[in-house]
Design a protein that fits this description.
Elements lengths: L15 H18 L3 E2 L5 E3 L15 E3 L5 E4 L4 H10 L8 E10 L11 E10 L4 H17 L5 E7 L3 H16 L7 H9 L11 H5 L10 H17 L3 E3 L13 E9 L3 E10 L3 H4 L7 E7 H11 L11 E5 L5 H13 L4 E3 L7 H10 L4 E5 L1 H6 L1 E6 L5 E5 L3 H10 L7
Parallel strand pairs: 1-5, 7-8, 12-13, 12-14
Antiparallel strand pairs: 2-4, 3-4, 5-6, 6-11, 7-9, 9-10, 10-11, 14-15, 15-16
Helix pairs in contact: 1-3, 1-9, 3-7
Length: 421
């Protein structure tokens, strides 16, 4: 039987895999600017680490090991990071600023944009209740999207208040929508019992939602003041935001600030590429010592769609920039030596290994692979210890010595004017 890829999983090949690697490298670079350092946690965790309130058991890849212990493929990264912080043998200075990247797994129905294996890039600021941490995480997230070339991201912000706020508001919504249950869609009837706040986001109930109790008029003065302080700091930092009272989070371990990074798509409207929240009560739900925290996470697969469609920055880091071509098999050894020298100078180089095709055909194939410069060597170049550089975009061609070759390529890359020898 021919092996096939499991349903809901995905292969990545160039150029998409190059873009994936570039997105991850940008996340690392931006996170380091804010003091976030890497944490690595296992892909397999104990099932008890993921409370059912956050994700149904049926949505997890769950299995028992040979000793009968229940394990899961991690569905998210936050719980594992919290566990790792408390498992550390020595107490570390708080707050801890941590970043992570890796695969997550959820057993859901595969469809466009939703797969069973996906990649998360996350930031977590653990050990502080400061609202400045909320703003820092949001600002770092926006910084990240801008470095990817996604300049029109808006942050949708809301507060879920504290436990008392949430309990009182749910009670008011249950009473309000309970009297209108016959007018609700089937999904919202279920939401009425699970979490009536989610009815507010239903596009089928605009009239009923318009007259529902207003969340921001219901929460305590302390919760409202905290939100206003967060918004004031976002304004000062230049982060574009929009307050969305309909933005909610189901699990009760979330508290105060919640947010989503939305990308404006002309044809499809707002496109969610990531988000975050403050999860001060999560550690206690996991039977860990109380530990406040706030973080954000981005789904790489969703970001790749936007990056590859709307930004060309990832192409600068994809594959090789230079291809060295020997005009005949006799110059292959000299061509390999040229490639070796260029790599030693920090340039990305690949060798063309097919000398049977005509040079022009090989150059066309190189340009299709996003190679910018071709270095041509024939018998005359080998005898004179020289090479010919061709810019495949402008078709400018320059002959130079092998010693000066890296400098010539860098000048061509910068757009400096060069004559031919």
């Amino acid at each position: 039987m021919t092996p096939t890829r499991p349903r809901g999983m995905r292969d990545l090949l160039p150029p998409e895999a190059d873009a994936w690697e570039w997105v991850r490298s940008v996340h690392k670079r931006v996170a380091s600017l804010y003091g976030y350092r890497q944490v690595v946690t296992p892909v397999i965790e104990t099932a008890a680490l993921f409370p059912q309130e956050g994700l149904p058991e049926t949505a997890m890849y769950r299995f028992n090991d040979h000793a009968g212990r229940p394990l899961v493929l991690r569905p998210d990264g936050v719980s594992g990071v919290l566990r790792a912080v408390h498992d550390a043998p020595a107490r570390q200075r708080r707050p801890l600023r941590l970043r992570y990247a890796g695969p997550m797994f959820r057993y859901s129905r595969p469809q466009h944009g939703i797969r069973r294996e996906f990649t998360h890039l996350g930031l977590e600021c653990i050990g502080t209740t400061s609202l400045y941490a909320d703003v820092e995480v949001i600002e770092a997230g926006v910084h990240f999207t801008r470095e990817l070339g996604l300049d029109d991201v808006t942050v949708f912000v809301n507060t879920v208040g504290d436990e008392v706020d949430r309990h009182l508001y749910k009670a008011r919504l249950t009473e309000y929508f309970g009297g209108l249950v016959d007018q609700l869609c089937e999904r919202c009837r279920r939401r009425l019992h699970d979490d009536p706040r989610r009815i507010l986001a239903c596009p089928l109930e605009p009239t009923l939602v318009a007259t529902a109790p207003v969340w921001l008029e219901t929460i305590s003065d302390a919760s409202r003041q905290r939100l206003e302080s967060v918004l004031d700091l976002l304004r000062s930092s230049g982060v574009p935001y929009d307050v969305r009272p309909s933005l909610v989070r189901g699990p009760s371990y979330y508290i105060h600030t919640v947010f989503t990074f939305m990308l404006a798509l002309p044809d499809a409207g707002p496109f969610d590429i990531g988000g975050g929240e403050r999860y001060d009560l999560l550690a206690e739900r996991l039977a860990l010592p109380p530990t406040p925290g706030v973080g954000c996470v981005f789904g790489v697969e969703r970001m790749l769609e936007a990056v590859m469609a709307r930004s060309s920055r990832h192409q600068d880091a994809a594959g090789s920039e230079i291809m060295v071509l020997a005009l005949s098999p006799g110059e292959m050894k000299y061509a390999a030596d040229i490639a070796r020298r260029l790599r030693a100078d920090g340039l990305r180089v690949e060798m063309d290994l097919d000398c049977d095709r005509r040079p022009e055909r090989r150059l066309r194939l190189a340009s299709l692979g996003h190679v910018r410069f071709a270095v041509l060597v024939g018998q005359d170049e080998e005898r004179a210890n020289r090479a010919v550089v061709r810019d495949l975009g402008s078709r400018l061609q320059v002959a130079t010595t092998s010693r000066d070759l890296p400098a010539v390529i860098r000048r061509l890359r910068s757009g400096a004017s060069l004559g031919t020898d």
